Amino acid sequence: MSATLAADEALARRRAAGERVLSMASGEIGLPVLPGLRERLAAASAENAYGPVAGSPELRAAAAGYWARRGLATDPVQVVAGPGSKSLLYALLLAIGGDVVVPVPGWVSYGAQARLAGAEPVPVPIRPGEGGVPDPGRLREAVSAARRAGRDPRAVVVTVPDNPTGTVAPPGTVRELAEAARELGLTVVSDEIYGDLVYGARGPVPSPARYAPERTVVTTGLTKNLALGGWRTGVARLPDGAAGRELHGRLVSVASQIWSSPPAPVQSAAAYAFGEPPEVTARVAASRRLHETVAGAVAGHVAATGAVLAPVTATCYLYPDFAPLRDRLAGAHGVRDGDGVARFLGERHGVGVLPGSAFGEPAGSLRVRLATSRLYGADDEQRLAALAAPDPLALPWIAEAVAWAGDAVADLAAGAGAAGRRF
Amino acid sequence: MSATLAADEALARRRAAGERVLSMASGEIGLPVLPGLRERLAAASAENAYGPVAGSPELRAAAAGYWARRGLATDPVQVVAGPGSKSLLYALLLAIGGDVVVPVPGWVSYGAQARLAGAEPVPVPIRPGEGGVPDPGRLREAVSAARRAGRDPRAVVVTVPDNPTGTVAPPGTVRELAEAARELGLTVVSDEIYGDLVYGARGPVPSPARYAPERTVVTTGLTKNLALGGWRTGVARLPDGAAGRELHGRLVSVASQIWSSPPAPVQSAAAYAFGEPPEVTARVAASRRLHETVAGAVAGHVAATGAVLAPVTATCYLYPDFAPLRDRLAGAHGVRDGDGVARFLGERHGVGVLPGSAFGEPAGSLRVRLATSRLYGADDEQRLAALAAPDPLALPWIAEAVAWAGDAVADLAAGAGAAGRRF
């Protein structure tokens, strides 16, 4: 964490000195709450009962419909709600037990959660450009080796679409992963929190629940598609069948001891959201277009430096690898890894990014993650204008942010030693 | 759990058959949300950011003021908010590590949480009538024995005021407990969720934080005093000093991996509540008086049976011991333990209670817990009338509920074999 902290401190110093910073480190979505959801929360302000541990019948039915519209027929009894999909992922690790395979790169909390649950994460690399899904061949090797070493892997986490790479693994790879999990007797935990943020109209994500329905748990929430991170409600879809019902029982038991139930007024608003009335689907679509446009513009600048960047097809993340520029970065800036890239961008340009080490990349990797989710405006007025704009890049604050990010990566790549863009 | 489930099923059968049941099993508070809190939640419906893991500055400052008004000077940096004090208790067990001493009887979740955290609960009995605080002498013996056996107790949980006994341990016992914890090097986790529900005007509860401030964590929330269980926000007060700061860091780290932050709109309303404006203190006082009046009336019926019942001085719980009636219960009803008492009251009278086994009582104990918190009305109109009534026992629905409970325990004790009160 030290490099992340160092980058944070550099940004904090710039802020304290009255300088502006460009926040591309956090994946928190900087967009306002849809008014219809605000109304539902307010209307539910009298709801103070715990209700069922697994969530209200209304929320579970709405979530079941949400999945059914994406090709995953779901009975509401398969649904468990919690105070965020993060909490559900943790409780699932406890409920499944044993060790857990995590993709590399992968969201930093998977491994940390595993350790809190008394498990060991088993890291398995992805195939290039197919983020979030451990390479099925390497999965077999890693699980066999772990079992020979006396460890007990029982689950594999996948992220479809992926954080940090902004890619969606192809159906063929997801199918291979699902088949490997079946052979190995692993439960698949599929984190699909970015499921509605696939660019264009490509249809539902290739969930492993299509290929190994008997062993796949899907989690999602409203944090990314509707910018409701602070409201803390997510949902899990457990497998049908005997094994799924048994896991459901264990999950609800864990939930009852750790959090009792998700916040009741939020459940009411979440049920409305998962019901997907037109205003909700329109807002999600507008957010998706905004991410695509702005991430695409930043990706153009990044690719122009000569960095390797898999085509970004979902989320609001770019995950470039500056390896082709290794010699230049070392010679011009003394930058030798992703931590160095993050430090350079933070200290010289006030641009906050996360180094690849935060996602489990090995030492020497020159990867960083850039998130565009905070670039859409300084206040709700600007952010709503960004959501509504036919061309968000024509809005001055977005144009400036994209140019700022572009200048920063260009300066990194050029090795010009310029003092950085000042504001 | 089977006895609890059996009692629940008996009640469910009665409900399905169109008969009414008297819910005295759950401690959920059946009272409406204060309108001022509803307004604050609605006003905060635009808040969708995670905010700090430890909670918003406003909530932490308000909680610090709440404790300061109770004689525990608190800096807001000592406060960590979470999605319910239950979640905070679990995260504290993870952050402290090792095994944990729990009082017997004690809230069922302490032991279950310890096991989920990979720890072993070390049960230590209370002194009679001094619920929630493990007998300090027995604590020393149990911790020494556990350490000799290779276990690693590092914390002791206390409950002041207590669930299930409805008592408040006297200051002298709490001081002894605090001194024993200091000698043994244990962190004290003091669950004070019922802290505002001490009957009369006896002043603040005797928190162990007064006697061992360097090692005591206090948790509380709005679930019991303001009937906001379904809103899911609690707070913890960490010790000042180096050890407290270190534990604070570990707790925030655990929280960041399990739940990120408490629900943002609820934090805003919770900050208002912990600020204790007059309407809030008036509502808490009215709830306290209502609990005292109704629990007192039920206690009269229970004591009339010859059961042992420590004077109830807080909460909404009665925890009688029917041991003096052991022969009569066995002879007349075949009832030989608390599970049997719960089954008899559920099947014969439709009165739901929890058996002492749910609180760790040994086999053969004839204890059950009765909660009055659901007796105040069938809807908000009745419940508001109950809060406002000079004599709640004169309200017909409360008079009927108290008489129903009284008839049920009288029938249990009389061994008359009557068919039960029918509605």
TrEMBL record, chains A, B:
SUPFAM superfamilies recorded: PLP-dependent transferases (SSF53383)
Where the record annotates domain Aminotransferase class I/classII large, the positions are 38-372
InterPro entries recorded for this chain? Aminotransferase_I/II_large, AspAT/PAT-like, PyrdxlP-dep_Trfase, PyrdxlP-dep_Trfase_major, PyrdxlP-dep_Trfase_small
GO molecular-function term, one example from the UniProt record: pyridoxal phosphate binding
Please indicate if the UniProt record lists Transferase as a keyword. Answer: yes
Keywords, alphabetical = Aminotransferase, Pyridoxal phosphate, Transferase
KW Cytoplasm (keyword) present: no
The record's Pfam families line, in alphabetical order, gives: Aminotran_1_2
| GO term, biological process aspect, one | amino acid metabolic process
Q: Which cofactor does it need?
A: pyridoxal 5'-phosphate
The family annotation for this protein states: Belongs to the class-I pyridoxal-phosphate-dependent aminotransferase family.
Q: State the PANTHER family in the record.
A: ASPARTATE AMINOTRANSFERASE
Full protein name: Pyridoxal phosphate-dependent aminotransferase
Lineage of the organism: Bacteria, Bacillati, Actinomycetota, Actinomycetes, Kitasatosporales
